[in-house]
Write a structure and sequence with these properties.
Elements: H1 2-41, E1 46-58, E2 61-75, E3 78-87, E4 92-103, E5 105-106, E6 111-128, E7 135-155, E8 158-171, E9 181-193
Antiparallel strand pairs: 1-2, 1-9, 2-3, 3-4, 4-6, 5-6, 6-7, 7-8, 8-9
């Protein structure tokens, strides 16, 4: 009886996590749709980027990571906008949002060097193991991404990108995990569309 109640509770937790993920994905889709309407209204100032890669140094080791960003270009060399990173697989579900400012150093050979930094929030939810040793903890923290992208301009408004981000935060999943997660490093590869 006790074992079936524990298994049932684990199933409910997984269902709640799935519902949260679907709600978050739906919210992100609505947000992107609204932004795309704005992008089409003022095409010359908006850019978009998407990445995939890995984040090392999380409470669950190295995890798969997706990254998305929207940029509003004040001029050709400076942009700002929201950035999101999400780790949706494995035992760790982690999502972060930040407002980011970027400076675009454009060289004549089609190479762009883009340092950036910002501030935002990060949420981590770790659900690992079964039985008495099971860990089901989550925490939300402030978040400071500091990074640089190296972009190769394929066309006038399309670039291939590789990005390194040092994520500074303070994730605390105690008492389940005694150590705090204070930093992680992301390596991402993707595309940039811009004006």
């Amino acid at each position: 009886m006790l074992e079936s109640a524990r298994l049932s509770r684990g199933g409910v937790t997984k269902q709640m996590r799935s519902k949260r993920l679907l709600t978050l994905a739906g919210t992100g889709l609505v947000w992107a749709t609204l932004l795309m309407g704005s992008v089409q209204a003022d095409e010359n100032h908006w850019g978009f980027g998407s990445d995939l890669g890995f984040t090392a140094g999380t409470v669950n080791g190295t995890v798969f990571n997706l990254g998305f960003n929207v940029d509003y270009y004040v001029d050709r060399n400076f942009s700002f906008g929201p950035m999101m990173q999400i780790s949706p697989t494995g035992d760790l579900f982690q999502i972060s949002f930040a407002g980011v400012g970027k400076y675009h150093l454009r060289f004549n050979n089609g190479i762009n060097l883009v340092p950036f930094t910002g501030i935002g929030l990060i949420h981590a939810s770790l659900d690992r193991g079964t039985g008495p040793a099971r860990i089901d903890r989550n925490d939300t923290s402030w978040y400071i991404p500091i990074g640089v992208s190296l972009e190769y301009q394929v066309a006038h408004n399309l670039a291939l990108s590789s990005t390194v981000i040092v994520n500074i935060h303070s994730i605390d999943l105690s008492p389940s995990l005694s150590e705090k997660d204070k930093t992680s490093v992301a390596l991402l590869f993707g595309f940039r569309w811009g004006p």
